[in-house]
Amino acid sequence: MSNPQSNRFFFKVDWITILIYMLLCAVGFVNIYASIFTANGDTSVFNFTTNSGKQLIFIISALVLGFSILLLDGKFFSIFSPVIYGLTLLLLIAVLLVGRNVGGNQAWIAIGGFRLQPSELAKFGTALLLARYISTFNPKFRDIKSILFAALIIGMPLVLILLQPDAGSALVFLSFMFPLYREGLSGYFLLIFLGMIVLFVADFLVPLKILIPVILLIGSFFIYSNRRKQKIMFSAIIATILAISYLFVVKFAYEKVLKQHQRTRIEIILGLKTDPKGVGYNVIQSKIAIGSGQLTGRGFLQGTQTKYGYVPEQSTDFIFSTIGEEWGFTGCFVVIGLFIFLMVRLINMAERQRSSFSRVYGYCVACILFFHVFINIGMSIGIVPVIGIPLPFISYGGSSLWSFTVLLFIFLKLDSNRMGFI
Amino acid sequence: MDNYNLFNRKYVVQGLFILTGLILLGTLFYIQVYSDQYFRTAKSNVLRPIYTFPARGVILDRNEKVLVQNEPVYDLMAIPNDVKPFDTLELCRIIDVDTARFGKNFRKARRLSRFQPSIIEKQLSVQIYQSLSEQLSRFPGFFVQSRTIRQYPDSIASHFLGYIKEVTQKEIDNSQGYYRPGDYIGRQGVERAYEKVLRGERGVVNMLYDVHNVPKGSYAEGRFDTAAISGEQLISSLDSRIQKLGEELMQNKIGSIVAIEPATGEILAFVSSPNYNPNLMVGRQQGNNYMDLLKNPNRVFNIRPIQGYYSPGSAFKPLDALIGLQEGVIDENTTFFCPGYFKAGNHTVKCEHRDGNVAVRMGLARSCNTYACYVFQKLLTQRKYKNQKIAYDDWRSKVKLWGLGDSLGVDLPNERTGRLYDAAYYSRKYSKYWGYSTVISLAIGQGEMDATPLQMANIMAVIANRGYYIKPHLVKSIGKNHLIKKEYLKKNYVGVDAQHFTPVIDGMQDAVNAPWGTAILSRIPDVVMCGKTGTVQNPRGKNHSVFIGFAPRDNPKIAIAVIVENAGYGSTYAAPIASYLTEKYLKDSIGGYRKAQVEWMKKQVVLPPPPKVKVKPDVKNTDSLKSDSAARLKINKSTITTKQ
Fold first, then answer.
1. How many CA atoms does the CB half-sphere of A250 hold within 13 Å?
2. What number is the average pLDDT over the span B294-305?
3. CB A370 within 8 A of CB A343
4. Rounded-to-integer distance, Cα A295 and Cα A312, Å
5. What is the DSSP letter of B78?
6. Could you give the ipTM of this predicted complex?
């Protein structure tokens, strides 16, 4: 604390980000109100037994929580990150033992009347420890040891969440690849990751007898063109073999490991199955709702899909369908614009940090948000399988709102301290 | 890698964010702005028209006595989700069904939908409804929906009235969206012919529905809703008094009666026998009753007055005379000698009697075949025609003016056209070697000529009117304003001048009233009836008894045709029946000794022998079972013997 001004709590806090945050919360409140609105039901805004009324309480308490984080010392998070991480791991184990089973997932711990979802806490716990690890050891991820260590930090909560099983939340942990990439992890990892996704999709859409020759052809092209550089040529050979065996592993895992409902979801997204009354029902109704919004939307509280309950899970995972129906393409554009602006800004803010802890943490926040936004909206419009994760700041639910608020405000606190070393 | 390079990686990440955002927006643009498929689907998701059904139009007879009315019935409905545990036994007792049936219906309703109302028990009577409505509050989730069904107070005129039935898929497809599954449509008779008038206008409420199919109120505050308008009433031309009498007289006989008011073309009686009680075609048992009636070998559903094909027989003879008079080939004093037969080439047309020299009046009164044949011969051998084929076609066109050989266009569906071939037909059949003698049977209304009873009655209407008819019809006026169709005001002239009718009518008067007339036994006291008996040869059995006539002679009020199948001479059955109906219509009662005759006639049974039951012998198995059955026979024998 060399700079006395940093003791003034809100000095150098990034108010623009807070403004966007509050806008998104407001969007959430308005649309949750619309989602649960019925023509002849209770329409009071301040009825705290309804989801929108509760959300108002959640938003206010989230703001209190957020601003109290700004009051903490910036060093707190860096110092206590292993403790926080350890705590979240303990909670994740606890939830497996004593958790409440909601919708097939053992994801909730009930403490009194209060329900906690440890997987939400695990996100910033992991982000903090990852930032601490990188800032302390300054690894460049060239050696296998540092990669493995980072993978361990990410992997432990990921595996525990997979055991719940909550594939959606686990998927979000893949977002930590981007901070690692920023800190020096080879871009090939991202490419391999991308290639795995492409091959996974291709595995379902293209028969093996076409796919394997195509891979062999591309592989032999690379092998031939690099025939003078032995090292690259060998890796190309290995990559080709791996790619082909990956195909079989995917097929096997798909048949044996995934559950039926997960298989169906994937098949629907890939267009292999149409099932309007079954699993695909949510997506179809959500698409109808969004599509019926057209350019300018049907107006606040005028969406019929929304009002008459055609979209299930509408105030939580499918909240975007309300936005799409009642506010149209214009509304969607504004919301997505706000998110993209927020994420790009977070990256810019991360880059202006002097400490690598803050930078890594900033990247983590931006990428976690990115995964949530992309998966959630993508699922609402049917380009991503149905994975039950909330839309940050907008979806109904205290646990998710608070955890995103904490995630964001910790970074805002770190950012307000950017001139100092942590 | 140095720090600068790593710093550049931020652009990769940010670029990925923006690219993904664009992908999302692009997809959104497609489903929200570019394609309107989702918008339309959303509409069909929530908006559903609910129809309210108008009462079907009532049908009255010409004296405004009700022929068909609507009777309320009540369907017990339930919304399975709202049903609380209740006393099943008690409810079943009230609605008078057994618990097994009730349970079955309730489970079916629950399978169909938990939130939608379904019918549990159809068409409860008013009595059941009254006791049920008092107790209904004890059975939450159940309610009663009222509907109307057709009810026929007199159970008469079934063939005229027809019936309504649930629409078929084909009718739904052809109705351009008017009918929906479960609707009723006039399937036969006047219900079908005047379907559009009777059905009224359906009302519609555009309801919004939520995902559980629970109604959420009317779309746009009911701006696009309409109320149901009940169907128009029809006043039929039938007179239920003589309709009823006719049906009673025709019971246990096969045939038909058509009576027309000549001045207006209104059909007063329209009897087709055998008939059925129209109340059978209503309600829960409709399907079963229909199948039972269908099994009747005498074809209950044939509408004989407009579908029965009969040779007009002697009923045609007045036409011969009238066309002859109009053409000038005869006058009223022209006589022909009747030796008891007429020889035309190889044919001999027999006459029932030998009257010597016969003129128009006598020829018709005695129904002389020879006279008719001579006139026909004269008509077809006129000098003005180049050949007899042309003469025949000219004759045919004159006959067709009377409504023969074609349909009259009565306002009921499924009217059959009569039969009368043109010259080309005979030229094809006989090559060019044919003339009047070939088709001489036509002169006496036999041979290749068929007419429906309606057409025969219409001939009488023409004669009664002395030269024209008005299209016969069964519906006098439509609606409260007594709208009459324009075509029923138009006179159709048959091309015979009025003065020529006098000798013909004289002859027909003699047939009923003169001592030598064929129908003298059917004379009505104080009424001058003109008529003509007919004994129509029937290739499939006994002759048909036919009578056509009108009354009174001056200013006729009724023209009538009666056909009793397989009943022999026209004077034995058809003429008396016609006279009773005429008397009833003109005097409103049948007096004196004739009353007993009516009762006697009602009791007569003139039915063909029941058809032989076709039994197919089981050829295939006979042989193989021979030994077996023989063995069984033995056993039977032995058991019998032991019993003895």
1. 17
2. 86
3. yes
4. 23
5. E
6. 0.86
3-state secondary structure of B150: strand
Spatial CA neighbour of A258 closest among A213, A203, A207, A177: A203
Q: Please report which confidence band the pLDDT of residue A344 belongs to, taking 50, 70 and 90 as the band edges.
A: very high
Gap between the Cα atoms of B172 and B183, Å rounded: 9
List the structure tokens of B499: 């003065």
Nearest beta carbon to residue B21 from set A287, A295, A336: A336
For chain A, the helix, strand and coil percentages under 3-state DSSP, each to the nearest 5: 70, 5, 25
Q: Is B498 exposed, middle or buried (0-12, 13-18, 19+ CB in 10 A)?
A: exposed
Which is more confident, A138 or B42?
A: A138
Gap between the Cα atoms of B152 and B131, Å rounded:
25
Calculate mean pLDDT across residues B30-45: 79
- Judge if the upstream peptide bond of residue A213 is cis by omega within 30 degrees of 0: no
Residue B374's SS3 state is: helix
The shortest CB-CB distance from B37 to any of A290, A291, A325 is to A291
Q: Does residue B377 surpass a pLDDT of 80? A: yes
pLDDT at A8 over 60: no
Quick check: A53 contacting B, CB < 8 Å? no
- Here the tokens at position A61 are 């308490």
Nearest chain A alpha carbon to B41:
A288
Half-sphere exposure in the Cβ direction for A113 (13 Å, CA): 0
Q: Nearest CA to A12 among A285, A414, A336?
A: A414
Q: Which of A40, A39, A37 lies closest to A29, judged by CA?
A: A37
Q: What is the mean pLDDT of residues B317-332?
A: 88
Contacts of B23 (CB under 8 A, 6+ apart): A383
Two domains, one topology: B49-235 and B241-603: no
Tokens of B459: 């001939």
What's the pLDDT score for residue A6? 47
Class of domain B49-235: alpha beta
Query: Do residues B209 and A308 make contact, with C-beta atoms less than 8 angstroms apart?
Result: yes
Of A310, A366, A383, the CB nearest to B211: A310
Q: What angle do CA A394, A395, A397 make, to 5 degrees?
A: 120
Domain definitions of chain B by residue range: 3-35, 49-235, 241-603
The torsion angles phi and psi of B338, rounded to 5 degrees, stand at -110, 110
- Asked if B549 and B512 count as a contact pair (C-beta separation under 8 A), the reply is yes
A378, amino acid identity: G
- Are residues B272 and B245 in contact, defined by beta-carbon separation less than 8 angstroms? no
Q: Please answer yes or no on whether B20 and A374 come within 8 Å at the CB atom.
A: yes
**Whole-angstrom distance, CA of residue A100 vs CA of residue A107:** 7
Interface test with A, best of B2, B8, B17, B44 (most A CBs within 10 A): B17
Domain B241-603 indexed as CATH 3.40.800.20: no
Q: Which residues pair with B258 in a beta bridge?
A: B270, B561
User: What is residue B613's DSSP assignment?
Assistant: P
Strand partners of residue B544: B536
Whole-number mean pLDDT of chain B? Answer: 83
How does pLDDT run across A181-226, given as a tens digit for each residue? Answer: 888 888 877 788 778 877 777 777 677 777 888 888 888 887 887 7
Give residues 380 to 419 of B whose Cβ lies within 8 Å of A: none
- Residues of chain A numbered 274-313 and touching chain B (CB < 8 Å): 285, 287-295, 304-305, 307-310
Per-residue confidence band for A127, with pLDDT thresholds at 50, 70 and 90: very high
Closest among A334, A388, A392 to A368, alpha carbons compared: A392
End-to-end CA gap in chain A? 10
pLDDT at A2 > cutoff 70: no
Residues B468-520 pLDDT 10s: 999 999 999 988 888 888 888 899 999 889 889 998 898 889 888 888 778 88
CA–CA dist B399, B462 (Å, integer): 12
